[in-house]
Amino acid sequence: GLAARRPVDEPGVIRGMVENADLVISARDGEGRLVGVARSVTDFAYCCYLSDLAVDRECQRQGIGKELMRRTQEASGGGKVALLLLSAPDGMDYYRKAGLEKFDNCFGIRRTKRNQDDDQGL
After folding, report:
1. Which of 47, 101, 37 is nearest to 78 (CA)?
2. Pseudo-torsion of CA 120, 10, 25, 49, nearest 10°?
3. What's the pLDDT score for residue 115?
4. d(CA 13, CA 6)
5. pLDDT at 51
6. What is the reported pLDDT for 118?
7. Cβ contacts of residue 122 below 8 Å, gap of 6+?
8. What ranges do the domains of the chain cover?
């Protein structure tokens, strides 16, 4: 799950990830319980990087993830904006089935340090 790849044990980092995102789209069930989230960084004109897509395991295979991606692209500028993401290895088949195109020309620099919460319990 998402916890294997994100610092869920560091609330200050998680808070910063959400507060500093340009776009956060959520999905809730009929009782208001959070069941999915898409967190993105975008310029709203050309490119949107979908940095997190997560759907509660109990709610998967209902189209929630695909709808979160659709709403993310629409909110970030619609068809004029490219939606990009970095998939976890176990998500590759999902994104293909959801209709995303796989690109072979992506490069990156991996994180080399782990963030730590400050003394104030953040």
Report:
1. 47
2. 110
3. 58
4. 9
5. 92
6. 42
7. 11, 12, 15
8. 2-97
Cα–Cα dist 27/68, whole Å: 7
Query: Which ranges of the chain would DSSP assign to H, the alpha helix?
Result: 11-19, 64-76, 92-97
Q: Is 4 helix (H, G, I), strand (E, B) or coil?
A: helix
Q: Which two tokens stand for residue 7?
A: 């610092």
Residue 47: closest CA among 87, 76, 86, 17: 76
Q: Distance between CA 25 and CA 38 in Å, rounded?
A: 5
Tens of pLDDT along the chain (122 residues)?
555 567 667 778 778 788 888 999 999 999 999 999 999 999 999 999 999 999 999 999 999 999 999 999 999 999 999 999 988 888 899 999 999 999 988 888 887 876 554 444 43
**Residue in the structure block whose two tokens are 């109990």:** 58
| The CATH fold of domain 2-97 | Aminopeptidase (3.40.630)
